[in-house]
Design brief:
The protein is mostly helical and 185 residues long. The protein is built from five helices and no strands.
């Protein structure tokens, strides 16, 4: 039997999350959100949301790396939680800034031009970045939480596998002992 790569299902889950979130957000934007009184087309709203959430999905390996590079299995449980914090904090600052800037740029690109035309990017960038900043912090730490849950589930699965192997070895040893008792020579 071939062993499946453990990241395979998570890639599909991330893709599914990006698609569902993007489509849901696009429907919401088309129905309820207006820029300067102008509606946005569904295709434009969908492209906007796919760009934003797709960038977060592509950032997951970097976030995982930031937390795993300082964590080892031999550490105490408390230290396993605190050791990756400096890496996570640095990644949070960098990624939230990058994602906030990307949000500002993509939002500026997809906004329909009003009667006065499109505003200069520099004049709206700061406001758009600050608009998205708290949401990006929540997204970052939500991803960290999911990564911890995945790591915990994998560790639990590994412990169960080892415990099952130890139990099977114990049963084999007991059977060997019983056979030796029944056939002493």
């Amino acid at each position: 039997m071939t062993e499946r790569h453990p990241a395979g299902p998570w890639r599909w889950a991330a893709l599914y999350a990006v698609v569902v979130t993007s489509v849901s957000a696009a429907f919401y934007i088309v129905g309820n959100y207006r820029f300067d009184g102008l509606r946005m087309s569904f295709g434009r709203a969908l492209a906007w949301q796919v760009a934003i959430y797709g960038l977060w999905a592509m950032s997951i390996p970097a976030i995982a790396y930031a937390g795993r590079r300082r964590r080892t299995r031999r550490e105490s449980p408390a230290n396993r939680w605190t050791a990756p914090l400096p890496g996570y904090l640095l990644a949070c600052v960098v990624l939230v800034a990058v994602h906030s800037a990307a949000y500002a740029w993509v939002t500026w690109l997809v906004r329909p031009a009003g009667p006065d035309g499109r505003a200069q990017f520099a004049s709206v960038a700061g406001e758009l970045m600050m608009e998205r900043f708290p949401i990006n912090i929540l997204l970052f730490w939500s991803i960290v939480g999911v990564l911890y849950a995945v790591d915990h589930a994998r560790a639990l699965q590994e412990r169960e596998r080892v415990a099952g192997a130890v139990a099977a070895d114990l049963v084999r040893a007991q059977l060997h002992t019983l056979r030796a008792q029944l056939q002493p020579h």
